[in-house]
Amino acid sequence: MLLQRKRNLLILAAGVIALIGLILLIVGIVLLVNAKREECDTSVASQSGSNRCSYSEEAKRAGVDTFLQKVQDKYYELHPQDLVFKPGGVELSVLMTKFKPYNPDPKNLKRITDSVQNLLGELQGLGVNTRLLKPREKKAIAQLKHFLKNNFGSPYDADYYAGDFLMGPNLFCWQQICSVGYSDIEKGLGNLFPKNLHDVRLFLNKMKLVADTFSTYINNMRLGVKAGMVRSTEECLAGINSFKRSYLQISLQGDQGM
Q1: Are 49 and 59 in contact (CB under 8 A)?
Q2: What are the φ/ψ torsions at residue 245 (nearest 5 degrees)?
Q3: N or C: which end of the chain has fewer CB within 10 A?
Q4: Residue range 72-131, pLDDT digits in tens
Q5: What's the alpha-carbon Rg for the chain, to the nearest Å?
Q6: Residue 249 CB coordination number (10 Å)
């Protein structure tokens, strides 16, 4: 009995030591990150031409900074459902006016796909000499190319010319339709705060657009069936089951689960 108590005490002591070590590790990482950030802030404030946090001469010459901002602005212009996640935040008045839920209409998907291809062409046309860029700038350019080549980071059913938008959700439900409940309704509509009758009407109209999102998606799948763009029986069953998991309460309770 005494031996068992000693073992329990040793296990408890080891657990406490491990926990303290983990806490110290996390604190150390946070302090390092803050130190790096303060170092950059200080160097920027001093306006030193050689500070490592400013753009390189090559990035300035090619207009990398301007282009990065252009891509970000274009993304949120074409994806108003994600405005609530825009870095730096968006004013409520802008959110009330410009926010719209995901629009899977083929014409809209084509507009997005064409725009991203144009941006990719512009990036290639900048003529950036990556050998003259700073490491973080090289990383940014590489990430940006990947982002644009994958249709603004949405390879699943967002690329109009791939035709995946006709086939419905897949096993993992990575398509945008699967996250409407969270991103568009909970985070998007959930951050709209009507202040007057006009805002209330605007809010109700945006809620109606959510219904249009799902009806349009269903129409796309019908078009896919007519065109022969369909998954196998097993894939279709896996997709619908995954979709039900994304909207579990609605699939179980119907209107009462909303």
Answers
A1: no
A2: -65, -35
A3: N
A4: 999 999 999 999 999 998 999 999 999 999 999 999 999 999 999 999 999 999 999 999
A5: 25
A6: 11
Instruction: Name the residue type at position 4.
Output: Q
DSSP per-residue string spanning 144-187: HHHHHHTTTT--SS--GGGTGGGS---TT--SGGGGIIIIIIII
Q: Which residues contact 123 (CB under 8 A, 6 or more apart)?
A: 67, 141, 144, 145, 148
CA dihedral over 78, 81, 87, 88, signed as positive or negative = positive
pLDDT-derived band at 1, boundaries 50, 70, 90: low
* Residues 6+ positions from 74 with CB-CB distance below 8 Å: 115, 119
9 Cβ partners below 8 Å, 6+ apart? none
| CA dihedral angle for residue 205, residue 210, residue 211, residue 217, rounded to 10 degrees | 140
Burial state string for 23-61 with b = 16 or more CB within 10 A and e = fewer than 16: eeeeeeeeeeeeeeeeeeeeeeeeeeeeeeebbbebbee
What is the distance of C-alpha 107 from the center of its chain? 22
Contact 247, 210 (CB under 8 A): no
Give the separation between CA 63 and CA 55, rounded to whole angstroms. 10
User: Tens digits of per-residue pLDDT, 129-172?
Assistant: 999 999 999 999 999 999 999 999 988 889 999 999 999 999 99
Residue whose tokens read 């619908």? 240
